[in-house]
Amino acid sequence: MRIIAGQLRGRKIHAPVSGVRPTSDRVRESIFSRLGDCAGSRVLDLFAGSGALGLEAISRGADGAVFVERSGRVVTALRATLKAFSVEGQTEVLKLDARGGIRRLSKREVQFDLVFIDPPYADYAELPGLLSSVVASDLLAPASEVVVEFASRDEPSLELELIEGLSVDSRRQYGETTVVWLSPRTGGHESLGSGTE
Question: Model-level pTM greater than 0.85?
């Protein structure tokens, strides 16, 4: 698994052999094609795993990224990658579960322009609650984007458009994976894009 584009393009991402389900290159490329320029962004990568999403954002110009990951073994591999890429000064790793990371960051009164939430597929039912916690903790900058990834089979049970404070901007299905883009709601419901690739 390698960085797709930007200043770190082609660099190999270290990841444990098991215990991590990295976002595929195809899905990652599509996500960042839609996001466009990451220059100046502050990134939060919950369920960071290998750190592929946050690192791709750093490679494409993001100012910094916070990675939240609960597994000590995975954190060790992630820190090795950050050191190898010489981006330790732009990044921080919190060895916490997602809710613990949200609480810790909320106390700092920081906000993020881009948030990735890609939990293990078995934990998909936590997504609505986690998104509500991100909103309630005031972690989202006014023009931020939230990118959520989950198994396509679980989509019917995830009513993400009903989460207070967020609007669903777009959703795309890539075989067994679905990606949804959300943003802070400033008024009524926005139109919902859809598609399958």
Answer: yes
